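Reopening this one. Same input as before:
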Amino acid sequence: MAEPEKTRDYVPEKLTFESAGAPLTGYLYLPTGPGPFACVINNHGSNLRPGGSDISRPQTAAMMIDWGYAFFFPHRRGYGNSPGVPVADAIPAPLGSADYDEQIVRRLDEECDDVLAAVAALRGRPEIDGGRLALVGSSRGGILSLLAAARDTNVRAAVNFSGGARQWADHPSLKKKMLDAAAALDAPIFLAQAENDLDPAATLDLAAELARLGKDHECTIYPPWGVGSREGHLFEVHGGRVWGHDVRAFLDRCMT
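Same output, byte for byte:
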């Protein structure tokens, strides 16, 4: 009887890359076979706390590398296993206040630098095709995928799950920043959100602005995910069996 084929492992390589003079941590998964590989950079939300779990996002990596994409999960400053000021200390003002609006925009600029540093680090690796990179993220990570794709015109695609769902209605500076980034985009973008997420306004307003400007984009509001808005807001992290087909088709269109 033939020996059963050994199942591959899903253990990443731990990488260090530099942003603003600090060594940040990321986790890189590679498909089997010869490279260089197109790569998805997954930008985490604000819930990746120092000392927390789910530090390398293997559940999403497994899906992406089975599609043939490398997968990189960088930890921005003050999150997970990267040094820096934690986000709660950087944004102490209450949600909905003018001070919060100012603080989150300033913090997003810093974190966007971290995302772009991760992009630059991958472009220097021989196993990665630096001309075929996509930025994907949810919540804070969705905002940053949009902002970074607007700043780096060589990024091939962006996917934004529910970026701004907590802040859109009450934070005009953040709203303007995201709309300005949408106007500056050269790369196609996929906007996605579960119907029972916190607030669909950011997703729908961004889609309307992209349509008005004639920008290449797709937008899908998916059926409810789980119980209530808190689970709905975790749709990107846990709902790959639902959104995977659509995101794969989008990435394949943009990355080939």
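So the earlier flakiness isn't reproducible anymore. For the record, Strands lie at 13-19, 22-29, 37-43, 70-74, 128-138, 157-161, 189-194, 217-222.
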